[in-house]
Amino acid sequence: MKTIHKIFPILIILIGCTGFSQTPEQQKMIDKALKMRDSIMESLNLEEVQRKAEQQQKRLESDKQSNNTTSPIPKAIKNEDKYWKNTLASDSGNTLKNWNNGDADLVFNYSYDPGKDKVQYVKIGVIRADGTIALNPINKVPILKPIKEFKDNNNFFDIHNPDVYQYHNEDSGFKLNAYLSVYQNDKQIGILTIGNSEKVTRNLLTSGDLYYGDEGYLLSWVYVDEACAIMAHENWKGDLSNTGTPLLVETTVTYDLSFKPGWNLVKTEVIGKYEFPNAPEEDRSRYKKHVHTMVPSIPDDATYYFRSTLY
């Protein structure tokens, strides 16, 4: 390298003379210098060094950008991860971690208009761009059904004998949803559930998973136009198997719900479970109790779960 450092200035001087008229001897020296320059450049492989340096810089910039980008909603890769597929959860407060969808509305669906092919809803909150959830249910729900029809529209399907239902003010208007829809630009992008278990908050919304024994609770939103109540208590024994292998269980379900006019919160708890380790995966547990009660506000230990419907 020392020899190269000594030769390079001489080459530069000689090559710099190419702009002037030269004698044959001088021209030979210049031609020789040009060849030597090309040989040195090739031996140093400066172009390759420059190319690699540029690639390294691009990688560093890409890595920096990746570190500054919010992580996307995780994708489940195993069957046991179905509870986290396309799902985000809040931290210890009311902020969704890794939320990167911008501002969104939280709405309560109350009807479907077939003429417009559109779900009708009222807004009761927002998810801010930073993932913070703010709820303020003050809007009235304009279309309701009599509370006495709950026995025919109970999406928990945990009462086998509809005669056990008892109502107070049975003609009062009533609507219950176990989730809130998440909308952006009048388009649904997901649902929001509230509870203390990623399993319970999904199981109780999924028709084939309603009987699972995973323990925890789910909150439901209820709007009524007058003070009213639902009471029910049932002890049931039976075989819940659909595989031919008996799954004999005894369940207890209780509804103790007294609603005030306007917005209310219902807590549905799954308590205790039967385990059947030798049964197929979907039949390995069944709940022992469902207890439905009123709560005045969202419990401190509650977690918010956003599940995307854009997949």
In short:
With 311 residues, this protein is of the alpha+beta class.
Protein described:
The chain is α+β, with helices and mostly antiparallel strands. The chain has two domains: 2-68, no CATH class; 90-308, no CATH class. It has five helices and 15 strands. It has helices at 2-16, 24-44, 46-68, 150-153, 200-203, and strands at residues 87-89, 104-113, 118-127, 133-135, 145-146, 166-168, 173-177, 180-184, 187-195, 216-224, 228-239, 248-259, 262-275, 285-295, 303-308. The strands form two sheets. It has an eight-stranded mixed beta sheet, with no helix packed on it. α1 packs across α2. The two termini are 60 Å apart. Residues 53-76 are annotated as: Disordered.
How many beta-strand elements?
15
Structural classification = alpha+beta
Radius of gyration: 35 Å
Q: Residue-averaged pLDDT, rounded? A: 83
Strand order of the largest sheet: 5-7-10-13-14-12-11-6
Q: N-to-C SSE series?
A: HHHEEEEEHEEEEHEEEEEE
Helix content: 10-25%
Biased composition (Basic and acidic residues): 53-64
Region (Disordered): 53-76
Keywords summarizing the entry:
alpha+beta; 8-stranded mixed β-sheet; 7-stranded antiparallel β-sheet; globular; 311 residues; 2 domains
